[in-house]
Amino acid sequence: MLLQTESLNKEYRTGAEVVRAVRSVNLAVDTGDFLAINGPSGSGKTTLLNLLGLIDRPTSGEVFLEGQATSRLPDRVLAGLRLRRIGMIFQTFNLISVLSAYENVEYSLLLLRMGAAERRRRVMELLDAVDLAHLAHRRPEQLSGGQRQRVGIARALAARPALVLADEPTANLDSETSQKVMQLMAELNARLGVAFVVVTHDPQVAQFARRTAYLRDGQLQDETGGMSGVQTGSARHPA
Amino acid sequence: MFKLALRGILRNRRRTLISLAVIGLGTAALFLTNGYIEFTYLGLEQMSVNQTGHLQVAWPQAWEENGDGQQHLITPVQQKVLAGILRALPQVKEYGGTLSLAGLIGTDRQSTAFVAEATDPAFAHDPWLLEDGMQLMPGDQERILIGRLMAKSLGAKPGDWLSLLTATADGAYNAASVQVRGTFSTGTAQGDARLAMLPLSFAQRLLNTGGIEKLIIRLDKTENTARVARELARRMKKAGLPLVVKTWQELSTFYRQIRTMYGAIFGFMSLIIFGLVFFSVLEVMTLSFFERMRELGTIMAIGTTRGQVFAQLLSEGAVLGLCGGILGLALGWLLGVGLNGANLTYTPPEMNMPVPLAVHLSAGAAWPPLVIALLSTLASTIYPAWRAARLSIVEALHHV
Which CATH class is domain A3-221? Predict the structure, then answer.
């Protein structure tokens, strides 16, 4: 199993009030999977994704990445896991504004201390895969929203992770661009065998996933609304 | 990392320009100050070496404030042993003996007290500026050079004869007539009123001795001073000579006092500039990192460690400090060239002749200001960088 959670809980304290953002979530993602986590605003989707992406620690429960328990690992080790095994795609793209599209994709490869020739080959291959090789030298502000998100996807895939986590990747895009971006993610999932977990409140986006889970008030529910641990479902890639 | 740091500081150009201006102006001010101090040191070093030689050898009592140098003279036998040692040291360029004597000098109408330094004219090094007449020549006997104010008070000019009264090494009175060969200026009124110079052999005759008070040694290079002093002391000890060696730095109290004073001034100025740069850059860096919280959260989310974030932000401070420092040195160099070209002079207190107001533009004068610029910028970056590296990734990603 690539990723698995066990009774995952996350609580926040706001003044005297305790907010239970994620409640007893049990979830499993296998290699090459494409899981959409759907739910309304405030349902805890982003908090859950942060826990899955090892950028936040659970209040209780455990996240296993490739069988390794992660909740007690030191920050430095978690950073290494994020760099090598997990790719992140953000709602607001989060590209580094002073770097070109090429350099944004190259960033994690520099952290991996990859050789210059191999790095260049990898970056151009990825930019080509997202159809942006011709705009490699452009800075983020010189790109459209869709183009920026495609750079974000290429960046997420640069270190050849086993898992890519996307937080509302189409929320800032028009519907046509959203469809193209999701189509691209589905293609890359099929072609590269990288697992994708996409958090979204848009039911249209969920169409591209093989499986869909629903989150309400921090709890994972099945498609029929019943309480459930791991959602399973058939692939529903559009033609 | 360097590329990212460079681009990082170019994000907000107006703010970066202000920081560079503060760092640059501070560095330029320190460079010019240090250049002026270096120039002064060089002048004082030259002056001190001219006056004292690089090294002096004598009995320890010869330098005591109330000591009577004539009671502890280097005998002719000891002079021979010393000469043998000095000939074996290749860095020794020349050497010669000195005697000092004091007494009264005057005409039939008026007299004044004097302090005279006697050296071999062949070895004489013209420490003072000759104003009138000629220098003492080898073979001169009853000849004297006197300070310009002494000449004025006695109404004496080159060619005139004066009477000189002094005491021999044994304590008896001795008198002689001497002809004024020339007058000189020491740069100070006190020196010009009291100092005189005599040929060594004439002074020995007056004092009824074959000894010398001190042996003055000049070297090929000033930087050899300490090494030769050590070697000479070792060889004198081996030869059984009860004499000591002193370097020009030890002998020139004025040089040491000036160094201490200028060192304190430069230290104080450095502290002010350090503080100025520190607080200016601290504010700039804090603002800059605060504005980039989401970006910092992003790079940590994609695998950058906190240590790498800290190092990256610190490198921005280093690049800013380095660029500001180099700009400051360039500005200081231009101003220094202009200042040196203007040939300005001023008259320091207690001096009666102007000295050049110039700066020594050298690597030695440049590196302390550059290091201070770099250190102050780095110091001001440490705290904001540390705080940024400690950010919660989740909070940073949600920062707007």
Answer: alpha beta
